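Treating backbone geometry as a discrete language has practical consequences that deserve illustration. In the encoding step, the backbone of a single protein was reduced to a row of integers, each denoting a local shape. The amino acid sequence and the backbone structure tokens for this protein are reproduced below.
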Amino acid sequence: MSALFIEALLKSSLLIGLAAAINLCLRRRGSAALRHLVWTSAIAGLLVLPLFLVGLPRWDVKVPVAPLATSRRAPRAHDSAAVNRAIVPASLRYPIDPAPSTPVQKIDASNDHGVVSAAVGLVAVYAIGVILLLARLGFQHRTITRLERSSEDVRETAWLELLGQSARCLKISEPVRLLRSCHEIVPMAFGSRTPAILLPAIADTWDEDRRRAVLLHELAHIVRRDCATQTAAAVACAVYWVHPGVWWASRQLRHERELACDDRVIAAGTRASDYADHLLEIAYACVGYRAPALAVSMARPSEIEGRLRALLDAARNRSTPSFRTRVASAIVAIGVLAVLAATRATLSPLNAQSPEPPADRQTSRTSAAEPRNVDPAAQAIAEGKPGTWEIWSAENGSVQVRISEGRGSSHSFRADAKQVEPFLPSLGANGQVRTTLTRDAGAFTLEGLLRRTADQSLVGAGTFTFTPSDAFPSELEKRGFARPTRLDQYLLARSDVGFAFIDELSAQRYARPDLPMLVRAAEHGVTLTHLREMGQLGYRLGQVAALITQVDHGVSPEYVRELRAIGFSALSADQLVRTRDHGVDAAYVGEVKALGYNLESVEAAIRARDHGIDSQYVREMRELGYQQSSIEDLIKTRDHGIDATYVRQLASFGYAQLPLDELVRTRDHGVDAEYIRRLHEFGYQTTLASLINARDHGVDAQYIKELIELGYKGLTLDEMIRLRDHGVDPTYIRELKTLGFNNATPDDLIRLRDSGLTRDRLKVELGYQFQRMRQYFQRLTAGAN
């Protein structure tokens, strides 16, 4: 659903862009009617596009792109993969404890549910928008129906004869109703099946020329079926309400529609200057009325200037597309829409290899689950280049071992010092050591120095080389695996993944992996020890990929035992990963329990951890006198942004020892130190309740400052709120000052605002706007003559 929605938005953008480009080419020589035809085709295409996307077969077009370079995954400090990638003796293999202090990447197992919830929410918001806009169209239809019912049929002979003459002039054969409204309206046409023209009552005072111009314009709407196209545009805006381009296209359609109707009136024999005069008079006589969305009106004041220019342009193309042109346009539009809907671009790398071999012909180079990214350093070791190793004693009777392949690639782990004793028999007199460590996949030859210091600590370093086993590939093929490369053998030997590992997988009833998956497990540090111990703890996951995920997220046998020791037992594999990702361990749980809070379940521990509940936060709040009784109270306080810093800031302004609920309310309403400080600068030192009320009503420092600059100094906060509630803002006050209201009191401002008095409305009532447009029209007429 989301993919179809996104595709519809993208392709609708292309459709609108194509229509805009065509109209740009037609701007000079094409007529308004032809441009309107292009926009009509685009709007119709938008409505049909979803049906074409669902119903038409897809045509994939490959787009060549350069492949993206991927970087090798850096091992985490706590990750046991970093331990088991080291090339060390079998006796040194020991699972490392994940470091609790190292931050881990949070990949919440509940993310899928969150994504689904977000998607459902977005769909709901979109559906609500569509429903509201369609309901608005229904309301507009009812408005037109009420206008029609409240109007009377025009029966005067002069009107009917003039209507018949105008209809014959435009070659309209269907009957058209002529209605008169008692309201002050702008002339309009409505109805697709039974068209009607609605005139204001003042139309009876018009002379015959103006009557004829108005009837010709409205009949032009009817013969062009503009009511239908207007409805289609309104439906398209409802369906694509999230797309601003569709609203823009609808405005362009309306603009070209009026120009095309004006061209029809001029083509019918009306003098351009006379028609422009009629248009100007009608537009400003009905300046306060807006026609319903499903009706097409004659004049909008906001569009008058452009229409006057077009009317007085003698070189303008005023032709109407022929029937053949309209049919050809429809065929072309359908073809373009079909190609656009069916086309689907697919990215094709420039260096793409041949298609993957069938499943029964396994390859040792890549895995379907994870594309292979060869480490050049590991490749060099596999080809015989030497690497280095180091060993030194660490705390608690353990040693640290590090294997380096060069170019910054190294692998380290910690092990018991007793496991280093197999080295000691080969030590020479000067501490030199040379030994061979044999694995199923190959052997490591180690050379270097190893000695004990005065405090019996071990320290050593040297070089190693790798020799792949000649028998390993054949034996692996007998077990049903593909033949490994030298690099595969090195990676398997480095993590000691061999036949014992494969047999243990079989014993625990894991699905048999292919060679790439086996190598991938070795690269990610899935060891035989990890496999066995997790199996003993009851975690037999069935898939090697699940094991890899577990190791990548730092879930080790020690971590499982640690959770069980603090009471979190019987956790699923997914819960283990989620708990580890959220940083819940024995140290955190012990810290919270030491503060007197009990975490009854692992979900409670995760929630507390995610909401930032730690010992520092609890201690700081307790020092300020706030001691929450439960974890839920702590989470609520933390979620609302209440911390020690915020409490101290309020106290510095005199708001100390507030109840917790009042603190939460103050924080939720956006009353912070900055807001309080700015209002104090203007002398508003009041209660928190008044500050919250002012904040909720939009009274801020900027609003107060601008009102003071306009001469309204010393107002109380309640007066400021009252002005704000009635829509009295600095812009409105400035407009009134330009009209002479220089000493209006706050009550005067509110009365003027409530009465609907605005600068533009006052200009219209005083005739200022009309006189300005009259002068502008006279200048245009003089220039045209």
